[in-house]
UniProtKB/TrEMBL annotation:
Gene3D superfamilies: Jelly Rolls. Residues 130-195 form the HTH crp-type domain. The keyword Transcription applies. PANTHER family: CRP FAMILY TRANSCRIPTIONAL REGULATORY PROTEIN (PTHR24567), LISTERIOLYSIN REGULATORY PROTEIN (PTHR24567:SF28). GO terms for cellular component: cytosol. One of its GO terms (molecular function) is DNA binding. Pfam families: cNMP_binding (PF00027), HTH_Crp_2 (PF13545). Keywords: DNA-binding, Transcription, Transcription regulation. This is Crp/Fnr family transcriptional regulator. Residues 15-99 form the Cyclic nucleotide-binding domain. It comes from Bizionia argentinensis JUB59.
Amino acid sequence: MIPIAILEKYNATLKTYSKGEVVFRENELAQFYFQIKMGKLKMFNHSVDGKAFIQGFFEAGKSFGEPPLFQDSHYPACSQCITDCEIYILAKESFFELLANHPKLHLALTKILCKRMIYKAKIIQELSIHPPEHRILTLLNHFKEATNTTELYEVKFTRQQISDMTGLRVETVIRTIKQLEKDEKLILKRRKVFL
């Protein structure tokens, strides 16, 4: 996203996190820009009954947690490493200075944030009114579209992760994926899902 040389020019530091380590917690005040150099993490919330709802997955080259920086607010979700990670951390004031001095990077970030907002709007609609088949297909098609491929797309999410992103039980996801295969709306090969 933001070139490493530019991050370093604005005094970003590179921090190492272990698998399972939390980068920030829900309701902490947002004070930093984060960009992943290596690894993968998830952002999620917990419901009152303790079920995790995954807001998104982020991997090398991606940034996360920016929206609260723009309104001096708290993080709306928790972020946790699902592999060992190396993450660039840039203080909020330096981040805004960087954006002011690099309008093309600012525009690129704005486009990414807009894509995330559209994804959230789709998911909210799916969770509120649609049956499991529609929820799962919308989610998987969203990620396929993001790759800009017209080829067969291999879904990289586990059944549990799909469950966490759609608000469905794992058993419902498993059963629905099998039904979608029977309806020829997706393909299963060696337990992997393809669109």
